[in-house]
Amino acid sequence: MDKKYTKKSMEELKEQLTKEQYRVTAESATEKPFNNKYDSFYEKGIYVDITTGEPLFLSSNKFNSGCGWPAFSKPITKKVVKEKIDASHGTVRTEVRSNIGDAHLGHVFSDGPKETGGLRYCINSASLKFIPIDKMKELGYEEYLDQVTLEYNFSRQR
């Protein structure tokens, strides 16, 4: 999987990303709450790193936390993210970065739903690209289709 996705130079990122996407992913900025692309978005598919295309989160693990940013209970696998202590803004938090691209994604908190492990990955929309379920195979993400389809079918039966 790692050979498929590569980290880009800062120059490439500046050319390929919007100013907001660059600020968030390369400069560790935070987009405004409740005013971003994926906060209230609940289509089926996967969310990938905007800088590399590396798969990060399944739509089935997304939930409405009310925080103003997309929230996920867990990443696709723990290998796709790395966590580091963030002592900025007068508080200590755990920053979440993409593994391959080293893009700033957001932060993880321990106030998520208990039934899914208790974590809340609070992620900036600007760091993500959504791949809808009907485009996953075409775009090379077919290995995750079963996870999205299984969860989708399960959630439809509730």
Automatic annotation (TrEMBL):
GO terms for molecular function: peptide-methionine (R)-S-oxide reductase activity. GO terms for biological process: protein repair; response to oxidative stress. The keyword Oxidoreductase applies. One of its GO terms (cellular component) is cytoplasm. Residues 10-133 form the MsrB domain. Pfam families: SelR. It is an enzyme of class 1 (oxidoreductase). Keywords: Oxidoreductase. Belongs to the MsrB Met sulfoxide reductase family. This is Peptide methionine sulfoxide reductase MsrB. It comes from Clostridium vincentii.
